[in-house]
Amino acid sequence: MDPQQLRDQTAFYQDLNSDKSGPPEIRPEEITFEELIGTGSFGKVYKGRCRQKAVAVKLLHKQNYDAATLAAFRKEVHLMSKIYHPNICLFMGACTIPGKCVIVTELVPKGNLETLLHDEKIQLPLYLRMKMARDAALGINWLHESNPVFVHRDVKSSNLLVDENMQVKICDFGLSALKQKHKMLKDQSSAKGTPLYMAPEVMMFKEFNESSDVYSFGIVLWEILTRKEPFSHHRELEKFREAVCVKHERPPVPPECLESLRRLIERCWDKDPLRRPSFKEIISALDHIIVDAAISDVRGREFWKKSFLTEKEVPWDAFIDALCEWNKVANRTQCDKNSLEYLNIKCLKAILADVPKSEGTGVENVVNIEKFGKILEFFGPMMAPGEGTPIMDSIREILAQKWFHGDLDTVEAASRLNGNPVGSFLIRFSSTNPGNFTISQVVSEQGPVKHQRVSRQNGRFIYQNVLYNSLIEIVAKSGGGTNGDIKLDSSMGVPNYKFMSLFCNVHGNDQY
Description:
- Its EC number is 2.7.11.1.
- With 512 residues, this protein is an alpha+beta fold.
- The chain has four domains: 23-106, Phosphorylase Kinase, domain 1, CATH 3.30.200.20; 113-292, Transferase(Phosphotransferase), domain 1 (Orthogonal Bundle); 298-389, Recoverin, domain 1; 403-494, SH2 domain (SHC Adaptor Protein).
- It contains 17 helices and 17 strands.
């Protein structure tokens, strides 16, 4: 560290120490240790209780307090006591009595992101993983935008904790460094951090700044994408160091990766720190990537980015007004309530809008970006004005069929068919393959209900190896299969009264 950096940090810590309130002091007898839940840079982390609250308690590896260990402990306490952000693990207090020094933080119940990513039994859709990446980026951006700048220096998946709402929080500030804006840092004796995530300039003992955290985040982003350990084939540190620093080796990005995500990862781990994006730019890029992950339909992505780029859930009224404007049609307040346009809006609301999960929002219905993406997979593609059949027309045409039941799982479909005669059927969304449908039918008096998939291909439908133009055509024209299937007869469709009620008294007539 050069003399100016030393003066900067000394002044900052003097300022911290001048704050007489300091971090909240916790007495040793107030803390109860339970099971070990993790290991940080300077200590083990236990689940515990403090003042009747479940907490995480960090105990230093060493309690003999040589000067370096004591300085590192005091530094982490001071850093954490000054940082407040929803995506940074909340510091609650510390015990600073020699021999009993601990740090107490909020308990983040789902553990660290590394463990979740590498557990194949846990379902983590790409959309959710990208939201988690954005959470981490928001936390690191808060550190980087502080003055002095906080450089975390150990950004890795095991230092990203996950709460009960799958929100990510950064932890472990044991290696963090402070710097003035536009200044550089440099290690003198040993590179600090975790080698797998360490920026090349840090490993080579060159000057570095907050862009080293950006490199680390690029590796984390790759890990979030692939759910694999980075550089798992390397075993020797010197060979690994040469591969990353000299040969510029990086983990392989899968070919099926979203192009927007690929570009961001490659920018983050660029060999030149000056070409890496700031976390402000990373957050902006992730806003677009999250939409790409939630919505595969090209026009659907364009619509959501134009109307609600940073939103994951929007009020129904705002959504339908924006969609009508996009489609250049009358909105809910402009069209006649007996018109086909108004019926389109009612049908879309019935299949897309949900009651908000949070109470007291003052909003009756909301549209979630994920559900919007799935609905487009079932009924899309979404067309720009003048390109083809508007998506709301397509949805209305299907919901008008009494045999269409929308979102049911296999058990519920069988329950609705129970007690109906042989040949009775319903059509629903596939519960395992978005974009596909399932025909559930009673095929014998004693046998179970049979479920057969209807797959989509280039906007058309494949049922029993025959290509159809629509679900309606399948019901009208399909014959019985060679494996004992019964012919579909529209009169045998089991009615779905929820959707049927939308069509009562249309133009003064009961459609059914």
